[in-house]
């Protein structure tokens, strides 16, 4: 037989549980965290961010405001994988849906109003933002694939099945570059100052970064700050102007003298959903071409001006 005191305690507990359920039902949902698949600085300096399951964010004012779209507006970055890609006798790519030409699906680079793309063993060129493509040149013999294409205004550089190659931007033959101790190159980065950086790994999967100050003629290994034998990963993540950015573990560093000296560059890399004491992992740093620098993590995009040392979180739209 229950006592009045026990009934009162039970009623209070039931009331508290009901209030907790009601408050949970009326609470605001947790913020939707974007999952960033890619970030591109377009030739017109607009920023295009591909967010998984959320389409594209585009900003034309340096990241202050964003417009959402389900379609990639830049044709030279879109490829219809449902159609087999075949070349006609003129080297132009065939039509896809409607009247839009299917662009080459490989890596892309642009110089002025001209856009370039690698596909199989060929370099293609488009003068109308990717609507039509014509063959510009063939890759060297034995180069059966092209996994990276970058430029510094003077040369194109690409990672191929035979190694890192270089070609004059205007015209000319490809040349195989000699990078020491390289079994496989993973990523290339360039600057308009003639700096080329290659992230590579050897046969034992050890990772290195090599830097060239003379457009790929000679190379030196990049020595990173605070790198120890137990460091999980160190590598260059981007070049902006004369500043090189590298990540060691979760820490971001920058160098303004081609890797000779490094300083911390992660001030401001926090979001409202970042757990206390947890660092943001920066995967890519991009030169905005407007004096600004962009840093992307898997779930956030940041920007800082070259003269400013603090990163600011950009308000991406996720709905």
Helix/strand order, N-terminal first: HEEEEEEEEEEEEEEEEEEEEEEEE
Strand order of the largest sheet: 1-2-3-4
Derived from helix and strand composition plus strand pairing, the structural class reads: mainly beta
Largest pleated sheet:
4 strands, antiparallel
Q: Termini distance?
A: 56 Å
Helical stretch tally? 1
Instruction: Give average pLDDT, whole number.
Output: 75
What is the strand tally? 24
Strand content: 35-45%
Q: Helical residue percent?
A: under 10%
Low-confidence region ranges: 17-31, 75-105
Radius of gyration from CA coordinates: 25 Å
Overall 3D shape = globular
Keywords: Signal
Organism: Massilia rubra
Protein name: Exo-alpha-sialidase
Signal peptide: 1-27
Question: What is the secondary structure topology, with strand pairs?
Answer:
Blueprint: H1 4-26, E1 36-41, E2 47-51, E3 55-59, E4 67-69, E5 108-111, E6 114-119, E7 122-126, E8 134-138, E9 146-151, E10 155-160, E11 163-168, E12 175-176, E13 184-190, E14 196-201, E15 207-212, E16 220-221, E17 234-240, E18 243-248, E19 251-255, E20 263-264, E21 284-287, E22 292-296, E23 301-305, E24 312-313
Antiparallel strand pairs: 1-2, 2-3, 3-4, 5-6, 6-7, 7-8, 9-10, 10-11, 11-12, 13-14, 14-15, 15-16, 17-18, 18-19, 19-20, 21-22, 22-23, 23-24
InterPro entries: WD40/YVTN_repeat-like_dom_sf
Keywords: Signal
Signal peptide: 1-27
């Amino acid at each position: 037989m229950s006592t009045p005191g026990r009934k009162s305690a039970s009623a209070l507990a039931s009331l508290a549980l009901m209030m907790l359920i009601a408050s949970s039902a009326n609470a605001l949902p947790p913020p939707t965290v974007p999952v960033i698949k890619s970030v591109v600085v377009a030739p017109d300096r607009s920023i295009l961010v591909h967010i998984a399951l959320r389409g594209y964010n585009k900003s034309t004012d340096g990241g202050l405001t964003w417009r959402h779209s389900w379609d990639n507006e830049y044709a030279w970055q879109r490829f219809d994988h449902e159609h087999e890609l075949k070349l006609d006798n003129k080297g132009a790519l065939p039509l896809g849906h409607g009247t839009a030409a299917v662009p080459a699906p490989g890596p892309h680079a642009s110089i002025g109003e001209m856009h370039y793309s690698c596909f199989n063993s060929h370099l293609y060129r488009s003068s109308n933002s990717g609507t039509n493509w014509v063959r510009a040149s063939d890759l060297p013999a034995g180069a059966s694939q092209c996994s990276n294409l970058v430029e510094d205004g003077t040369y194109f550089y690409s990672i191929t099945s035979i190694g890192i190659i270089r070609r004059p931007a205007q015209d000319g033959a490809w040349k195989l570059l000699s990078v020491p101790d390289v079994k496989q190159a993973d990523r290339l980065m360039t600057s308009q100052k003639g700096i080329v950086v290659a992230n590579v790994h050897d046969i034992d999967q050890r990772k290195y970064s090599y830097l060239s100050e003379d457009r790929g003629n000679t190379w030196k290994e990049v020595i990173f700050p605070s790198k120890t034998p137990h460091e999980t990963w160190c590598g260059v993540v981007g070049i902006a102007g004369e500043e090189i950015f590298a990540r060691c573990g979760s820490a971001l560093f920058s160098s303004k003298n081609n890797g000779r000296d490094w300083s911390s560059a992660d001030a401001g890399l926090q979001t409202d959903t970042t757990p206390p004491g947890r660092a943001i992992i920066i995967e890519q740093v991009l030169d905005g071409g407007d004096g600004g620098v962009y840093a992307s993590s898997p779930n956030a995009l940041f920007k800082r001006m070259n003269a400013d040392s603090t990163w600011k979180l950009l308000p991406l739209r996720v709905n």
